[in-house]
Write a structure and sequence with these properties.
The chain has 388 residues and is mainly α. It has helices spanning 2-12, 16-43, 45-52, 63-78, 82-109, 126-143, 149-181, 195-213, 218-222, 224-255, 267-287, 299-314, 355-367, 370-387. The chain is built from 14 helices and no strands. The longest helix is centred in the middle third of the chain and has 33 residues, at 149-181. The radius of gyration is 20 Å and the shape is globular.
C-alpha cells in the first residue's frame, strides 16, 4: 500500500508515467501476496487462523481489506475500469465484514488476554485505514454511477467514514494511554506507529470526497457543515502527530542509539507521508484552502525516497499477517469536474521482519561497544517481539 500511495502522489504531482508504472507494480504485488496468503492458509492453517485472533498480530489482517479497496480505486481512476473496480469493492466489503466481526469478537471472548503494553500498537489502526479505504472507494464509485446506486454508495461512504472516525477515537485512547503510563523502550517505537498519522490522513481524504459528492446526494448537502468541520478535525489531528513522531524518532535513534538498519516494517512509515500529501491536496481542492498549497508537493518526495530505499534494499515487501498492495492515483484534472471526481486511498504495506533485517542488526551490534551491544540486543528483542 505504500507503493500505491506514492503512485497516487506521483499522479497528483504530474508524473503519470511513474504513477502507472507503480500501479502495475501494485497489481503484481497484490496477486503475489494473495497467492502467498492462500498458500500459508493451506499449509499452516492453525498458525494462519491463530494469528488472526492474536492481539498483536490480528489487526495486520486488515491490510487485506485496505489493499483490495485501494486497488479498486486504482482501476476506477487510472484505468476507467468500473467493472473491475466494483468487483474488487465487493470483495473488500466481504473481507471487511468477515475480519471485523471475527477479530473483535475473538478479542472479546478470549479467556487469556495479554497485557495492554504487550499487545496494542499503531498496527491496530489498520482497522481504521481499512474502513476509510472502503469509504474512499465507495465515494469514487458513487461519483461515476447512476441512480439509484449513487445514493446508496454515498451512504455507504458516509457510514464507513463515520465509523472509521469513531474507531480511531477508541483505539487512539488506548494507544495514548499505553504511551503515557507504561514503560516505553526504543524497541517499542516500531515504524507502524506512523499509522497514528496515516489513519487520520486517509480519513481526511474520504471526508474531502464526500464534500465533493454532496451535490449528488441531498442528505450530504444538509451535512456539509458537519462534513467540513470533521474533515479539518481529522487533518489537524494528523498534522499534530508529525512533529510528535519526529521527536520520538530522534529520541530513539539519537539519544537511545537504537541501531539504524533496514526493517521491512518501515513500509508502514511510507504510507502516512504520501497519504498526508494526498489528503492535504484534496482538502485544499474541496474547501478552498489554497494557502496550504505549498505542502503537498514537498511530502511525496520523502515517500518516494523511502519507497526507493526499501525496494533497493529488500525488493518488494514480503507477505505479512495481512495483504498489502497498491493504492490509487489522484489526478488534479480529475477533480476539476464536479460531475466525475476521481480519488483513491492507500494503506501501509505491513511485513514481518526478514532474516536480512535481523542480520543487519547483528552486524551493527558486533561493531559497537559492549555497553551499546547490550542495549541494542535488549531493544532489538523487544522490537521483534512487538512485531510478532
Amino acid at each position: 500500500m505504500a507503493t500505491g500511495i506514492v503512485s497516487l502522489a506521483s499522479d497528483m504531482m504530474g508524473h503519470p508515467r511513474l504513477a502507472r508504472a507503480l500501479f502495475a507494480l501494485n497489481a503484481v504485488q497484490y496477486v503475489a501476496l494473495w497467492l502467498a496468503y492462500l498458500l500459508r492458509a493451506w499449509r499452516f492453517p492453525r498458525r494462519f487462523f491463530g494469528d488472526m485472533i492474536d492481539h498483536a498480530k490480528g489487526p495486520g489482517y486488515f491490510t487485506m481489506v485496505a489493499a483490495t479497496g485501494i486497488l479498486s480505486s486504482q482501476f476506477v481512476l487510472l484505468r476507467d475500469d468500473l467493472a473491475t473496480g466494483f468487483a474488487l469493492w465487493v470483495l473488500a466489503v466481504v473481507l471487511w465484514v468477515g475480519l471485523t466481526y471475527t477479530i473483535f469478537t475473538a478479542f472479546t471472548v478470549k479467556k487469556d488476554k495479554p497485557p495492554l503494553d504487550r499487545s496494542i500498537s499503531g498496527a491496530w489502526l489498520l482497522a481504521v485505514v481499512a474502513t476509510q479505504a472502503l469509504a474512499v472507494s465507495s465515494a469514487l464509485l458513487a461519483a461515476r454511477s447512476g441512480q439509484p446506486f449513487r445514493l446508496e454508495l454515498n451512504l455507504m461512504a458516509l457510514s464507513m467514514w463515520l465509523w472509521g472516525g469513531m474507531l480511531y477515537i477508541w483505539m487512539m485512547s488506548l494507544i495514548f494511554y499505553r504511551y503515557s503510563f507504561f514503560p516505553f523502550s526504543p524497541g517499542d517505537l516500531s515504524p507502524p506507529y506512523w499509522i497514528n498519522m496515516g489513519a487520520m490522513a486517509i480519513s481526511t481524504l474520504a471526508g474531502s470526497l464526500l464534500i465533493l459528492n454532496a451535490p449528488q446526494a441531498p442528505y450530504l448537502v444538509s451535512l456539509l457543515p458537519f462534513l467540513k468541520g470533521f474533515t479539518v478535525f481529522y487533518w489537524a489531528t494528523g498534522t499534530w502527530w508529525i512533529p510528535m513522531l519526529l521527536l520520538l524518532g530522534i529520541w530513539r535513534y539519537v539519544f537511545q542509539r537504537f541501531p539504524f538498519s533496514y526493517d521491512p516494517l518501515y513500509w508502514g512509515a511510507i504510507f502516512p507521508l504520501g497519504m498526508y500529501a494526498a489528503c492535504t491536496w484534496q482538502m485544499n481542492h474541496a474547501m478552498g484552502f489554497d494557502f496550504l498549497g505549498f505542502l503537498p508537493p514537498r511530502v511525496p518526495v520523502r515517500g518516494l525516497a523511502g519507497l526507493a530505499a526499501d525496494l533497493r534494499r529488500d525488493g518488494p515487501p514480503p507477505a505479512a499477517p495481512g495483504a498489502g498492495a497498491a493504492g490509487p492515483g489522484l489526478r488534479p484534472a480529475a477533480f476539476r469536474s464536479r460531475g466525475r471526481p476521481r480519488a483513491g486511498s492507500g494503506g501501509a504495506d505491513q511485513a514481518v521482519p526478514s532474516s536480512r533485517a535481523q542480520s543487519a542488526v547483528s552486524s551493527s551490534r558486533a561493531a559497537s561497544s559492549s555497553r551499546r551491544a547490550a542495549m541494542g540486543s535488549s531493544s532489538s528483542s523487544a522490537r521483534v517481539s512487538q512485531a510478532r
